[in-house]
Amino acid sequence: MREAPAFNKMKLRLFGLAGFLVLSANLHAQAVLPTFARFTHDDGLAAEDVHLLRQDRFGFLWIATADGLYMYDGYSFAHYQHTPFDSTSLPANSVTALHEDRRGTLWIGTVNGLARMNLRERAAGRFYRYSRDAENSQNLGRYGISSIIEDAAGNLWIGA
């Protein structure tokens, strides 16, 4: 007596499935271990105390320190600092907050006010400052900036 062809196909499928399960049970995903790199003064990162890190939409790493703002492009560092009498430099060297908004602007909070940089023009290294104005009590430059966030509507909220 011969078995029906449909029954043979079903047995073949079950044996195939069982074989697959037995073989795949012994396969384990290999854990991906993180790698760490340490940057020092010799690499171009002169600051020893890093306040925070942000990666922008272009993949550049921004490093906020007490000695200014560093940008790492994967090969070398660019260092931005406050320069007296240069209105296109940071308001202060101690950078305390970073945020990239949805338009590609990097907002930088310092102990002496707020600045912004258009990330598409980062090569120029120019910042627009919101500096201290002793006569204007509403000016953000009067305060040290502790945090910067953006809400769903695109409004920036600045903690001072």
Structural write-up:
- It is a single chain.
- The chain is α+β, with helices and mostly antiparallel strands and 160 residues long.
- The model has no long low-confidence stretch (mean pLDDT 83).
- The chain has a single domain, classed as 7 Propeller (Methylamine Dehydrogenase, Chain H).
- The chain has a 4-stranded antiparallel sheet, with no helix packed on it. Strands 5-6-7-8 form a 4-stranded antiparallel sheet, with no helix packed on it. The protein has a two-stranded antiparallel sheet with strand order 9-10.
- The relative contact order is 0.11.
- The chain contains 1 helix and 10 strands.
- The N and C termini lie far apart (88 Å).
- It is elongated.
- Please give the largest β-sheet: 4 strands, antiparallel
Rg (C-alpha, Å): 27 Å
User: What's the mean pLDDT score?
Assistant: 83
Strand % is 25-35%
